[in-house]
């Protein structure tokens, strides 16, 4: 990742290590500064949930809208606690997935979604994303490239060559 500067002091820097890809399954590990070891995810929806929970826990990036729920009991508390960093950024960035590795930096949580940048470590490619859906499409497209698929859809977000 020598071609791209990564802000290692960013509190919300995350490393997504993809270890297994199958039909409708993407499994791997999520690393960040606030856990000692990985969080395992079994699909991309679970990955997004884990990332969102971490952002809420550390309070960064801050939400610009309140989460809506069907029940008041599900409404999250806005009280924040100080969460200590237990892992160095360099340790987080050294992790690699068996299939692919992505360094994700969510800079903003505006309009009820995420904006930021993603670096595909193995290919040394960087791309900005404007929503969580676009982030998922970038990861999915990169994994298709890794598997040799040539199903590129015109207009879909993809890493620059």
Give the gist of this structure.
With 161 residues, this protein is of the alpha+beta class.
Write the layout of secondary structure elements.
Blueprint: E1 13-22, E2 25-32, E3 39-41, H1 44-58, H2 89-93, E4 100-108, E5 115-120, E6 125-129, H3 132-146
Antiparallel strand pairs: 1-2, 1-4, 2-3, 4-5, 5-6
Features:
22% helix, alpha+beta, globular, 6-stranded antiparallel β-sheet, 161 residues
Tell me about this structure.
The chain has 161 residues and is α+β, with helices and mostly antiparallel strands. It has one domain. Helices cover 22% and strands 25% of the residues. It contains three helices and six strands, in the order βββααβββα. A hairpin with a 2-residue loop joins strand 1 and strand 2. The model has no long low-confidence stretch (mean pLDDT 86).
